[in-house]
Amino acid sequence: MHTKEEKMQAFGRFLDVLDALRANCPWDKKQTNESLRPNTIEETYELCDALIKNDIHDICKELGDVLLHICFYAKIAEEKEQFDMADVCNALTRKMITRHPHVYHPSQIDAEDPKPLPYVPSDLGDLGNPRNPRVTTVSQVLENWEQIKLKEKDGNESVLSGVPDALPSLIKAYRIQDKARNVGFDWEDRRDVWKKVHEELAELEVELEKDDKAHSTEELGDFLFSVINAARLYKLNPDNALEKTNRKFIDRFNYIEAHSIKIGKPLKDMTLEEMDRLWEEAKKEINKQ
Prior knowledge:
Elements: H1 4-24, H2 26-30, H3 33-53, H4 56-79, H5 85-98, H6 138-151, H7 169-182, H8 193-210, H9 213-233, H10 238-263, H11 272-288
């Protein structure tokens, strides 16, 4: 692995290349925040795709693409004399130090070379500093994080205001529930969530029987929200779980489609029984791989 100095040199070379492209490349010259935004979304999803596949080569490559976009936005802002990459890094550093009082002393927020506090087990006190609460668990860290964010000058106005409106609904539901948990709004016993899941499913079935689309849609949302809640309580990521199932379905369906091509029989001409048989065959074959 590289030293800190080598990492800084590599980042510096990258910024030099970005500056040169912005000054000399016709495409780079004309880019704006608005024109880059769609590509940023695409690059982020490509990174997420590499992460779920655990493709180390692609993770490295896609991280670079996302980094390019981050620095490009900072470059555009620098040209408008709004802020630059150093401001981005400094703001991030201050935020991370402020939100980790169990690691850093508050006086180190603007320090050029902040030093972590020495580790002290919870039974040995809090270093004598009332502004450095004893935090020993992930749960305590997250609770403290949310409280600090609410107190920050430019922080969230409310607990849930930090959840972006544009997040995909499944991820948004998880984040909403997780943030509420950090301030104590959660099930005392995670097993109690199943009563809610069953209740929401029963209400959905009632509306479906009535063929009431509006109320069925509402109850479907409530049911999905409760399932996501259950996943969270059992420390399962519902988005990752659903994506794994998506990929599993794609692999198995592709197997059926490949077989239909092999025998020269289009899928639309196959019976459901034929496709079910191939589906079970696909499960066995793919599990062997």
